[in-house]
Amino acid sequence: MKPLLIAAALLLVPAAAQAQVAAAAIPNSFDRSATQPRQAAPVPAPAAAAPATAATPANPRSEEVLREIIAGGQAGALPYALMTDDLAAKVREQEAAVLPILQGFGAIQALDFAGSQEGADLFAVTFATAATQWIIGFDESGKVDALLFRPAE
Asked: What's this model's pTM, rounded to 2 decimal places?
């Protein structure tokens, strides 16, 4: 019976009061006076450095397939056979918006491998009218399962 009474009492206590009780256990940095120096947060030791990017593409076909996708888009017909069914469906939903963008970029001036991370390859692609970054990744069967482009930073 006591647990029921305690639970009922907690339900009757306003939520603001419960929050104040919980907040009282957390140090409040705003209580420090303006004359006290601010303490710097401890800096964690650096973790074992794993390379974020690789010197060679994760998939040796990345550049070739990326060029084919870009060329297809600029010609008005994306090569969906190169993509997984899931990716192809997502790209088809955006085709009406993507094709005019790709066509507006103009000819490829440079396509440079920039690195790999978690199995996906990053390329810097410079067009006649835009500098972009492209990410391309493949599934186990060799189909493109990740594709993204964005303005270059």
From this structure: 0.65
